[in-house]
Amino acid sequence: MERSRAARILDWRPASALARIVIVLCLVIPLLLAATFMWSMWDPAKTLPNVPLAVVNEDKGAENGGEFQVVGDQVVQGLLETEYLDFEELPADEAQLGLTKGDYLFVVTIPEDFSERTVSLITDNPRQSEVLVEYNDYGGTNGKIITSSLIPQLQAEISSTISETYATETLTGLNSLGDGIKRAADGAGQIDDGLGRLQDGTGQAVDGINQLDSGATDLNEGAVQLDAGASELNSGAGELNDGARRLEDGAYQLSDGLITLKDGTTQLGDGAAQIDAGVQELTGTLIPILEQAQGIVTQVTPVIGTLRSLGLNDQAAQIESAISRIDPANPANIVNDLNRLRAGTAELSYNLNSPDAPYISGVNQLIDGSQQLASGSTELLDGTDRLLEGTGRLKDGTTQLADGTVRLKDGTTQLTDGGTQLADGVQQLKDGSGELKSKLDEGAAQAPVVSYVDRSAQQMAVPIIFEEANMHPTQELVDPANPTVKSIESGFSIIIMLVFGYLVMAILSALLPHVVGRRSESRTGAGPVLRALAMIFGINLLVMGIFTALSVVLGWRPDNWLSMGAVILLIAASGAAMFQLFRILFGRLVGGLFSIGVFALGLFVFGGVWPLPTIPGPLQFMHNLHPMSYARYAFIRATDGLYDGRYWASLLVLLAVTVLAAIASIIIYNVRRQGAAQALEEDKVVVTTTDRRVGEEPLNPVIR
């Protein structure tokens, strides 16, 4: 009886060893090449521009220098403009859902206090900004390997934005400091004007003092002549007693006048002492203030260099000119001028008050002489003629003395006027110094003040702390100080359940001696196939149960055990039916190798090891054709409690693979069984008892 073409095609099997070797090589060599390419030559970094990434901006912003800033917006803008990264800004819930589904390789989250931490650099509580990078190893356990070179670039991109904010804040503080110094320079100019007037008044005071000294000299000369006349008068006192008595009266009057002169000089000395005390007090107040202000010179000098390095030469020159008036290295600085003023007033007070001063000493000697003259006038009673002649010369001397005292009075008047001008200049100096202090205080207040240098320096050196999190980590560090020691975590369940699960099911399909039962047990092909399928399904279910228990030990827990149970049942059933089909179709050896090859292909394309967007295009095409891809979709959603359309579609695909593979196995087995029976009838062959096993390459007759 002639068999149909379809029956002959379904009944075809490689009969010779060479044909089987060729089939094996055609299957194994492409898989070996693909595996070699994926593990040694494929660079997934080239696919990063096509890998979806998500960024979540929860930053609420913060006040900084009277301006509201949202630094997180700048960071997000920088990430979105990065050409080699496919970032998408999303709300937090959408980003988490996408990460759960595996739509995004990782999610970058900018927290609410990002701006607040960023602008806290020079506050009392500087805090480093934080950014959260969250992964999901269910989207590909090698995902972190791919991103290991990407994260440093991402960190550098975000850190550059923060560093720019720090630089802007620092330069703004420098500008404010420059304005304060400019106003301080204006105050210093007013001090300089007041000092000029003070210098003029001091010059006039010196001129008056010189005239006073000249008058005192003339007075001294007249006193000498008076002394000579008094001597001659003394020799003639005995000649004219009456004249001697009048001369005695005049001598005592002269003594009183000299005492009055001394009293006036004492009052003048008191005024000079008060001026000196006022100047000493004023300079004692101003000089420490100005010397304290001189401390700014060393602080501002680096700023001048910084401004010049930035090309701000005019501003640097203005600051340098302003601080030169208080620069201790400048001989003509304000402090030195005040020291000279203090020395001048001290010298004036000394000349008018110290008994050792030439002027006071001369006055005292004059008083002594007049007293001697008064005492000697009594001796002149006998020398009236000589007394009259001497009193004439005495009259000339007293006239010169009167002229000298007039000039002395004029000099003291000029000294008073100069003192008044000096007081006015000092008052202006006080006003200017007060304004200088006020402006310097304003400049200091506007300048950046770093309260905690160490913490702020740490924040500037490492502006951002990148925290990492993983929804389903496969491994975690046991000790953060030792990155070589890791522990296996619950995320490894996807490898145990799917990779190891399908691998063991493929190996068992190649090693089990029977995959379709015995021919004598059924009149049709469906019975042996279904019984064998049930046996393999039971074994697979046992394997999956063991792997499930191992995953639970690692900490894995599904959202709903009933939903996960359905996934596990369909994984075991689809694996049993699919690998049974390959065994029936190609025989034990070739079918077993084919099962291993299909598993190896699934390892690359199902998305649990290499993230789907990072694998080559041809393998991405195979993703939707492999049952392991749908097993992964169903497993992830049952674990996370996400029962969307893809979950139910994946269950339907696994069910369809199971049913279609079982139907194909029944059809192929039945066709081959009928073909074997026909061959036995036509060729009159005898089948040994060993050929009753129809599992390997079924119904190969042995002719007796």
UniProtKB/TrEMBL annotation:
Q: Name one Pfam family in it.
A: ABC2_membrane_3
**Segments crossing the lipid bilayer:** 21-42, 492-512, 533-556, 562-582, 589-612, 647-669
Q: Which UniProt keywords apply?
A: Membrane, Transmembrane, Transmembrane helix
Topological category with respect to the lipid bilayer: Multi-pass membrane protein
Naming one, the record's GO cellular component terms include: membrane
Domain ABC-2 type transporter transmembrane stretches:
423-666
Q: Give a yes or no for keyword Disulfide bond in this entry.
A: no
UniProt xrefs under Gene3D superfamilies: Methyl-accepting chemotaxis protein
Q: Does the keyword Glycoprotein apply?
A: no
Q: Which InterPro entries match?
A: ABC2_TM, Phage_infect_YhgE_N, T7SS_ABC-Transporter, xxxLxxG_rpt
Compartments, record wording: Membrane
This protein is called what? Answer: YhgE/Pip domain-containing protein
Native species: Corynebacterium sanguinis
